[in-house]
Amino acid sequence: MKITEFLKKELQGWQSYEITGLVTVFVIIGINAFILKDSFAAVVNAVCGILYTIIAGKGKISCYFFGLTGSTSYVYLAFMNTLWGNMCLYLLYYIPMQILGIFRWKKHLKKESGDIIKIRLNAGERCKLVLAGILGSIISIIILSYLNDKSPLIDGITTFLSILGMYLTVRRAIEQWIIWMIVNGLSFIMWVNLIINGTKAYSTVIMWGVYFILAIYFYRQWKKEIDKADKNL
């Protein structure tokens, strides 16, 4: 496939209100970074992370290029703030899984639009997902408490649920957005608390807030598409 053809497919499907919202968020991040002297890593992470989430929500494989850049920046931020769970999550899991995601998504693209084919888990898989989420979160919290993590409860829950969320992302399953709603909401609270205690990462807080809204938005979009596909079977 030629680069121009690839780019054309990747840019299809954008609504004017989505573009307006994206530009608005980036302007806010830019103004915030200038006035509050935010860290460069936080700004890069926020911009790339938001682009990754939106493009992934649209089912475009190019999301992973932004995801890899944003994840690298987040590893640095987590390290500087002793969030060992989040740091290990991004370094040892997110980055390798995003590389895997590129190859897995490439096998399930619609020829006409270049979007991925989206799926829904069955009842049995959902039950296993819930049990794994509860048990894994408890174990993560215990481990991070022993490692003197600054926020073992939230960091433990978000770390393990993010593992499940990334797995579901690579599988192209709609249930990922429910996981991301929980992860993004708790991460927003965690970073607000860090800022209250002196951490300069304001763009990261904005990023998690936007992530939370996008998770709700794309859950509804994916549900409509999957429901429509099921009716046509």
Task: Spell out the blueprint of helices and strands.
Layout: H1 3-10, H2 16-36, H3 40-57, H4 63-80, H5 84-106, H6 123-146, H7 152-171, H8 176-196, H9 202-231
Helix pairs in contact: 2-3, 2-9, 3-4, 3-9, 4-5, 5-7, 6-7, 7-8, 8-9
Structural write-up:
The chain has 233 residues and is mainly alpha-helical. Helices cover 79% and strands 0% of the residues. It contains nine helices and no strands. Helix 2 packs antiparallel against helix 3 (40-57). The longest helix has 30 residues, at 202-231.
Number of strands: 0
Q: What count of helical segments does DSSP give? A: 9
Helix content: over 70%
- Largest sheet descriptor: none
Which short descriptors sum up this protein?
single chain; 233 residues; mainly alpha; 9 helices; 0% strand; globular
How would you concisely characterize the structure shown here?
With 233 residues, this protein is mainly α.
